[in-house]
Amino acid sequence: MAFFNPFPQSRRIYVPGKIYPDLKVSMREITLDDPKCPVLPVYDTSGPYGDPEKTIDVNRGLEKLRAPWIRERLEKDGRHKTQMEYAKEGVITREMEYVAIRENQKMDELFGGKGDEITPEFVRSEIAAGRAIIPSNVNHPECEPMIIGRNFLTKINSNIGNSAVASSIEKEVEKMVWSVHWGADTVMDLSTGKDIHETREWILRNSPVPIGTVPMYQALEKVNGIADDLTWEVFRDTLIEQAEQGVDYFTIHAGLLLRFVPLALKRTTGIVSRGGSIIARWCMVHNEESFLYTHFEEICDILAKYDVCVSLGDGLRPGSTADANDEAQFAELDTLGELTEIAWKKGVQVIIEGPGHVPMHRIRENMERQEEKCHNAPFYTLGPLTTDIAPGYDHITSAIGAAMIGWYGTAMLCYVTPKEHLGLPDRDDVREGVVTYKLAAHAADLAKGHFAAHFRDDALSRARFDFRWNDQFALSLDPDRAMDYHDETLPGNGAKSSHFCSMCGPKFCSMRISRDIQEYVKTGKLSHQ
Amino acid sequence: MAFFNPFPQSRRIYVPGKIYPDLKVSMREITLDDPKCPVLPVYDTSGPYGDPEKTIDVNRGLEKLRAPWIRERLEKDGRHKTQMEYAKEGVITREMEYVAIRENQKMDELFGGKGDEITPEFVRSEIAAGRAIIPSNVNHPECEPMIIGRNFLTKINSNIGNSAVASSIEKEVEKMVWSVHWGADTVMDLSTGKDIHETREWILRNSPVPIGTVPMYQALEKVNGIADDLTWEVFRDTLIEQAEQGVDYFTIHAGLLLRFVPLALKRTTGIVSRGGSIIARWCMVHNEESFLYTHFEEICDILAKYDVCVSLGDGLRPGSTADANDEAQFAELDTLGELTEIAWKKGVQVIIEGPGHVPMHRIRENMERQEEKCHNAPFYTLGPLTTDIAPGYDHITSAIGAAMIGWYGTAMLCYVTPKEHLGLPDRDDVREGVVTYKLAAHAADLAKGHFAAHFRDDALSRARFDFRWNDQFALSLDPDRAMDYHDETLPGNGAKSSHFCSMCGPKFCSMRISRDIQEYVKTGKLSHQ
């Protein structure tokens, strides 16, 4: 599969566990011409696609990494337990040790842990407390464990999925692989068109990252797109179907209650969540409370059986800065807090979805209220977009809000592409969206002080000051683009060791002059004069 | 000149003054199919280029709008006074009323002022206090007045200029026009190659926005690029030459003192300012205090004569997140505070330059320290970039920091293009950089509550909810891109009134469903079933 160029100066490594020595935690190791840091391992979401030794056949699917772990536990316990149940019992699972190692990126080994590195026991305690989740459906053994929680690296989600207007199965699988190549930590399949079951099956069997869905979309297809014909039974059967396939988390808009709908209809942009608008219509037309709310305990029973996480959807998120932090939005958020406690009692892992469109000065209130009302369950936001006037650049308006809310404690950021509000993203848009959100998440990690975050920045900055151009490219989130941009004006290998670039030229390169001064202070000799 | 497409549904309007009825403050008025807001005037930096009635000949230069104002004052006062001198004397100049009207964008007339609109007297008082500047060299009469200060709209600067490696005069003039078309409030000409005087002359005579320079670059050319041969006299003559030409503000790195250089040499990335590294080398090699510092009073005497503003440069800004907020940076910032008081005594308008590379959690300290040490002179920052690992996307890593520091009170944001650290920006990079910074500045204006900011967001959101696609495009910062992205999957005029786009398709369009529910509540009738 030649979906992408391999990353330069990179090789795949596998790190064993200490509790479970058979673990093979995958990372990408970048080789550098830097005595302070000859190799730098980095977090790697690409799974087997990032290992040139592996032969991948999309018709057969990926290796079932977790199958023996899951089987062993089933044999011992007689039923599937969720990661939360194990955590509460004090058990550190293989998944937990895997993510602990993965979070540290070997920085504890290479640079010393200082006590703030991530331990397996810390992972367990965060999951037990509901402050973090490991999405890991027992029927998605291809998935490499990862953790979502405020005390871990900020994660990003990439949305794929065909709509009735465009796209195909092959394209969606390719978009998933493309997303994880660039760094998507989870992928949501938001397909709404035909072949929804088959598309999902292909994606799941070939995905090394957790897959999320909004089951309402398929339920609606089952009633021929007539929202008013939806029933609890159709929805329930859809949940079971998708849980059986291996979906790792479901977005369910169970907090959107009948009495909240009139609050939302008064707004500038009404209801802007697809799932939210469907259930709102159902509630209003039937003049009945949402079946997602009235049947929430049964929903949790199904989810617990497979260890599917619930992502409590914000059907009333604001779709414009004018609607931010309004009564409708917060009424629903408070309800999500009630539902969180119900899910936890059933052992179901929970994350909470958040906005949306929010001007910068109103972002923090979202985080604080979410933590308070939802008892510190991880927050998972879409942006937020900090202004409404830049369609075509909404990956950027939203990256501003995303970086900020990530710093404040949001655990996962749902990407926004340049096509937001305008059309279905293509391959280039997905790359732009994923890389933009990687940098926003990384900015958040630096700001919140994640143990492993700053080493890569520092290595890149040293490479920059040393004019090691190839090392700069290799350490970049998107080496292909960095190299292409550099080479537009200064192509060729000679320019890769030049002590300048075309931005300032040789005479005005401040870093070159800066090095000359250092040299002068050391040796008393002047160069370049 | 067919440098760009005119903005859709737009026409140029001119608003007269009340104190000075002969003023013609230019704005762009967007016509909308919105009963709440049939026309929306927006801030317009494009000058005569945005008025189809005007014939422009770049060989003759633009109309000298301010020439009679300047002449009248000179005749009355017998010498040129700066805007700050007038402000302190209690005089409201034409420039001051112009910017007051410009800042309000007619929102006071259209939607009512609520007392928080900008008055000419408020403009005067802010300039008198040093909290704002109007860059307006008496020899740049082509310039339309604009104001830079924390209590006004956040401004953005676009850098142009050839380097020794690439570019030409024609290209630089075109980049200036292109920059102001997309919304640059000021343009810095950072040319360093040959023909530096002639390039600047072309830019000045054709620029409707203030032009800034770093005079050190030309001074260095005059001594054949040998930094050690620089002298106060060469620098002084360069200042006079550029002031005579009409440059509106000079970046001068006068706060970089000899004793600070060793602090900077210890850093991960040393000195990353071009002007800073040149003067640092001069200081070290001569073992002498910087002539920019020792001759600062004479510099101010020259600037006052032409009303050139000084932008006190941050030669020791951090070039990596590792170096953020360090001793070198803050030692220089404190010195800029001393220099501010000297300049103010001479009647010179002052802004202070700021970083650079700063992780999010350390941004606020920059703003707070700047305000305290520099006595509330306006802050003008480059980004800051919030992570080092995304070359190729540094317009985005820096837009995050820029939006935040703008919200905290920074008055002007210097744009960063996708080519930052990699090469000289081309036309596409300039557009990408300017629009990205416009959205960051606008996000800051919403967050800090500028009176006129939210009307455009609200108009666009209403257009979105009403499926008025053409109005959405017209209200966008970059209508061309919004339209192109939309039309990639749904071209043609029919799709411009469709109640969906290709992102979700008709059945899953939440806004469409939302409107159906509204309709149902009103009429009891169901649609789309």
What can you see in these coordinates?
Chains A, B: It comes from Hallerella porci. Chains A, B: Pathway: Cofactor biosynthesis; thiamine diphosphate biosynthesis. Chains A, B: Its cofactor is [4Fe-4S] cluster. Chains A, B: Belongs to the ThiC family. In chain A, helix 9 (232-245) runs parallel beside helix 13 and helix 19 packs antiparallel against helix 20 (479-489). With 529 residues, the first copy, chain A, is α/β, with parallel strands linked by helices. Chain A is 44% helix and 10% strand. The mean pLDDT of chain A is 94. Chain A is globular and about 85 Å long. Chains A and B meet through helix 10, helix 11, helix 16, helix 17 and helix 18 of A and helix 10, helix 11, helix 16, helix 17 and helix 18 of B.
Number of strands of chain A: 13
The overall pLDDT of chain A, averaged over residues, is 94
SS field, number of helical segments of chain A: 21
From the helix content, strand content and strand pairing of chain A, which structural class follows? alpha/beta
Radius of gyration of chain A, in Å, reads: 24 Å
Termini Cα gap of chain A: 52 Å
**Approximately how much beta-strand content do the residues of chain A carry?**
5-15%
Layout of helices and strands, plus pairs?
Two copies of one chain form a homodimer.
Chain A: E1 10-15, E2 25-31, E3 39-42, H1 67-77, H2 83-88, H3 94-104, H4 107-111, H5 120-128, E4 132-133, E5 148-149, E6 155-160, H6 169-182, E7 186-189, H7 196-205, E8 211-213, H8 215-222, H9 232-245, E9 249-252, H10 261-265, H11 274-286, H12 291-294, H13 296-306, E10 309-312, H14 327-345, E11 350-354, H15 363-373, E12 379-382, H16 394-408, E13 412-414, H17 427-448, H18 454-465, H19 469-475, H20 479-489, H21 510-523
Parallel strand pairs in A: 6-7, 6-13, 7-8, 8-9, 9-10, 10-11, 11-12, 12-13
Antiparallel strand pairs in A: 1-2, 2-3, 4-5
